[in-house]
């Protein structure tokens, strides 16, 4: 796709990489600042008494009030260092580890663009993005380079391309294309918008949004790759993502991440001119050797392995039986963004071994609103919570508690119905990779 | 040209980040002006025909309560106490119709917490009376020594009458008067804000994010039903405690109003859902082509109200004596809660949290 294998080491202008580094650093700084200003560090990582950890990452726990705020402060400092290109390698490694750590604390805070940020930060660790328009180069901490192997820019384009194409493929389903759900549900809530608000109850608008969105995601990257269509395509990027930000403000910084990242498709010449607008002292523009990697074969093998994983992870859902949106087995880490409207209500009951004693659970005693909302529609989180409840009641003196869940879920406007087998003792069910057979099959009543 | 493009998106990024907490901060967004006449009409109906009249009614009922209450405090007898009861009941039942409007002014004043945190804690109340040292404006810790539950305990707990003639009677009378004036103050305050600027704010908030009027309504429906399922019925019934009943923790325990209050609460919720005589969330669902759902919810309201009414009186005794009927009411309320929390919340696409969200 974006990597031309015969020419992957061909030296090209390093400027696109430099712009990417600067904008990434600045955007991360603003994004973290916004997160802090809204009080979310406290709401998400300090207040909850229980966290939905990732399987295998149970050891990732928050650092307490002061610790979490210090970590965010350090991440913001690292973001600025990345933008400035000062102590770049240390800053980007710290940013990757710190940011990923925060994201691993609680599954209910998972957002696709946070995953994207972690992946991009990981890739940036290995790229020579601090070799030009960077304080590292200016101070002589690293040797200035004006050119870099073509693949260093290609992998960022490929990563972005995968996000778009997988997001587009995910939209190729009957609900999205034929019923225009969830757009048909979401758009009437936007009737307050000036000018366009009046059309939000019309079905054709929902179909327009659905089909345009799917087409955009599927094909935009190819128009961005093509020199002749690039400028127009970027215009579409701006319009599409700003519209997303306007219609769905709850999506947060995602539109801005995509708007800024998509600049990577522009030529070195474009980026050189762009960088010349920076209020920096004149940077040398000639006379250095291109940047070279020391272990070219190893680098190539690792890069291929990385992208093989990136291709396979979003496809893993096909190994599971049942409706993906219903079971959500293989749903995360797959660029499924704004794809379905799902809501649930989960009622838990804890019983003793003999079934003599029975305790209803008040979820708000253990979970925040966000955690409860996310848990109620995702089987692995329901299971994690059931295991936690078993622990809680064990500590209350019930020897081997059984945990039962009566969960109702509505998906894309379908009437809510029982989600799990409510007679299964979830405390006895293990977290696992293969299908959870206690999820009841999905049935659709509307055509 | 290229420079302007860059500066354009820099401005957009900076401008669109919207710093600051938007929690409980409806309709301050200047962009939220439009001509969705249905939503404006529906919210106007909620303000003018449901919420403001509900607070007005509570205010009037509290006024009416004052006369027999003062008469009782002047001359505490069985007869004068009996005379307080109907007025107290009318006021408490009237309160249930304001309970759902716990957003905007009421939420800012924490009025539901102050007016109806039950059970009242007799130990703390007695201590407050004997020391003469109490601050009703202290949230959380002093929620349970004031409001209707405290008033109810003071007036209708066993042997309450003799305490109004005993040694500490004058301090007790003063406390009762203080509790009532606190209830009146909070109600008045809320009502005057609704009669003032907040009505405009409420009617013009047409979004569905957290802090918007529609989200307030739908989320409060769910919240109230959760309270019905939990503190009003399920918890005293022993749902959290392996069937161990805590009748004295129910709402309206001392006045024997537990069932009346539960029914009043749910009936008022149904009234809010259908929008009384104007457009309500039910009509909004029809507008969204969810007619069947609207009908299903209305029918379930009736089933749940019927199930609560089927619990033999006094309901607090039925927690132990007639568990099957209580269990049935509990199930029916849970069914209703499920419909509101999943189908209705989904169809109206209201947000329940203010964190970022990329559509599950």
Automatic annotation (TrEMBL), chain A:
Single GO MF annotation: gamma-glutamyl carboxylase activity
Stretches assigned to the HTTM-like domain: 9-270
SMART domains: HTTM (SM00752)
GO cellular component terms given for this protein: endomembrane system
Coiled-coil spans in chain: none
Keyword Ribonucleoprotein: no
Keywords for the protein's UniProt record, in alphabetical order: Disulfide bond, Lyase, Membrane, Transmembrane, Transmembrane helix
Membrane topology summary: Multi-pass membrane protein
Highest taxon above the source species: Bacteria
Transmembrane domains' residue ranges: 12-33, 70-99, 111-129, 150-170, 204-225, 232-265
Location in or out of the cell: Endomembrane system
Stored Pfam families: HTTM, VKGC_lumenal_dom
Keyword Disulfide bond on entry: yes
Protein name: Type I deoxyribonuclease HsdR
TrEMBL record, chain B:
Compartments it resides in: Cell envelope
Gene3D superfamilies: M75 peptidase, HXXE motif
Keywords: Signal
Domain Imelysin-like positions: 51-339
One Pfam entry name: Peptidase_M75
Main location: other
Keyword flag Signal: yes
GO cellular component: a single term: cell envelope
Record carries keyword Signal: yes
Organism domain of life: Bacteria
Name of this protein: Iron-regulated protein A
Provenance organism: Persicitalea jodogahamensis
